[in-house]
């Protein structure tokens, strides 16, 4: 199997299936979200700043909770995801919440062929880059959709985390992007007991690869941060060390779990 040729189809099937479980999972707190609770975290909110009246492109938006939170904050939001089931759910939520966000079904690399606009802000977060094989091409897409002077914000799980086995008992993969990783996993991060057993295809991207790709695409890095916690209990063997802050049990405070970047298109 040529995984580079088929990875989009394989991963799209995976995320269509995940979406069916995620929308009703306790992880996504749908009832609270529908009642007005924000789905965003302090990490990304501080970098986004005041977005009222600004146009925001949200890449890899899943089923739209963060996009709709941005819309509730006063932004003009376009959410993009390659899962047609996720986009359908996002559109349903948009209608239910009487927001005016727009949702487009497209993979990141194909988006310039279907969307011809530029935005004040491009945003993406948490578990997104590992599904993309080419950071240079990704960064070029980010730059393509930013207005001059526009900002890019990413909050993402730290590449050190993806070196470990799922139980965090051993180092399984390289920190660097040396191989295509093909795995068969059970359940999902949002529901470990979900009846899902499917193949997924991903890549590890070290920090230098990500940041240099942004720089090479004409973006100036204004802020780079690393955090020793995750705002989500989405990995195995996690412990809540403070409200909304999760670390790996037995390695508390020793690992970077999240990083964040704010960059400006020059």
The biggest beta sheet is recorded as:
7 strands, mixed
Instruction: Provide the spatial order of strands within the biggest beta sheet.
Output: 3-2-1-4-5-11-8
Low-pLDDT stretches are none
Overall pLDDT level = 96
Helicity level: 25-40%
Q: How much is the radius of gyration in Å?
A: 18 Å
Count the DSSP helices: 7
Q: Could you give the count of β-strands? A: 11
Overall geometry? globular
What structural class do helix, strand and pairing data support?
alpha/beta
One letter per element, helices H and strands E, the order comes to: HHHEHEHEEHEEEHEEEE
The rounded distance between the terminal residues' Cα atoms is 41 Å
Q: What portion of the residues fall into strands of 2 or more residues?
A: 25-35%
Give the gist of this structure.
This protein has 266 residues and is of the alpha/beta class. It is 28% helix and 27% strand.
Keywords:
single chain; alpha/beta; 11 strands; two-stranded antiparallel ribbon; 266 residues; 7 helices
Describe the overall structure.
- The chain is an alpha/beta fold and 266 residues long.
- The protein contains seven helices and eleven strands.
- The strands form three sheets. A seven-stranded mixed β-sheet has the order 3-2-1-4-5-11-8, with helices on both faces. A two-stranded antiparallel sheet has the order 6-7. It has a two-stranded antiparallel ribbon with strand order 9-10.
- The chain starts with a helix and ends with a strand.
- The mean pLDDT is 96.
């Amino acid at each position: 199997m040529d995984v580079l040729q088929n990875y989009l189809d394989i991963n799209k099937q995976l995320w269509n299936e995940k979406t069916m479980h995620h929308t009703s999972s306790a992880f996504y707190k749908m009832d609270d979200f529908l009642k007005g609770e924000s789905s965003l975290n302090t990490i990304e909110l501080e970098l986004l700043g005041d977005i009222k009246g600004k146009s925001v492109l949200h890449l890899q938006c899943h089923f739209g909770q963060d996009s709709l939170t941005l819309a509730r904050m006063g932004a003009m939001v376009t959410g993009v995801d390659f899962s047609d089931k996720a986009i359908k759910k996002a559109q349903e939520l948009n209608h239910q919440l009487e927001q005016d966000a727009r949702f487009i079904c497209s993979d990141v690399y194909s988006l310039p062929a279907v969307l011809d606009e530029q935005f004040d802000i491009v945003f993406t977060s948490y578990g997104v880059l590992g599904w993309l094989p080419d950071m240079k091409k990704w960064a070029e897409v980010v730059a393509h959709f930013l207005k001059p002077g526009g900002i890019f914000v990413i909050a993402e799980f730290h590449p050190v985390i993806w070196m470990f086995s799922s139980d965090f008992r051993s180092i399984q993969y390289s920190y660097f992007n040396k191989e295509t990783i093909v795995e068969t996993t059970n359940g999902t991060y949002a529901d470990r007991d979900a009846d899902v057993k499917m193949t997924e295809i991903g890549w590890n991207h070290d920090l230098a690869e990500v940041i240099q790709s942004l720089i090479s695409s004409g973006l100036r890095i204004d802020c780079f941060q690393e955090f020793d916690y995750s705002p989500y209990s989405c990995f195995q063997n996690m412990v809540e060390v403070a409200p909304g802050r999760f670390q790996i049990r037995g390695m508390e405070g020793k690992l970077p779990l999240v990083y964040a970047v704010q960059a400006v298109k020059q």
